Amino acid sequence: LVVGNTEIGVEVKFKHFLYPVLVNPTKVKEMIDVQEFEDSIYFGASVSLMDIDRILRSRIEKLPEHQTRFFQCAINMLHYFAGKQIRNVASLGGNIMTGSPIS
User: Fold this and answer.
1) Domain assignment of residue 11, yes or no
2) pLDDT recorded at residue 103
3) Partners and quaternary state (predicted)?
4) Number of folded domains that form the chain
């Protein structure tokens, strides 16, 4: 499964790994689905980090500050995570699955 390609791209280019089949889960509705509820938000594993950022910012504008402290912390961390170009394609699920200490 390839979303942002940061990990597999490095493995193919520098470690000469071979992946004969690659699947793009960003075309699977359930993988890019976002469901917003009054007390929670569900993010599909392939939702981009920038989309998560945008949704959290939207919630911050609508809710009291004491209900959005975690959202602000997450947005702050995303800023340091990578450049906007990477955040546009990288996904939360991909970073969890990679298990990289820098993710």
Assistant:
1) yes
2) 58
3) Homodimer.
4) 1
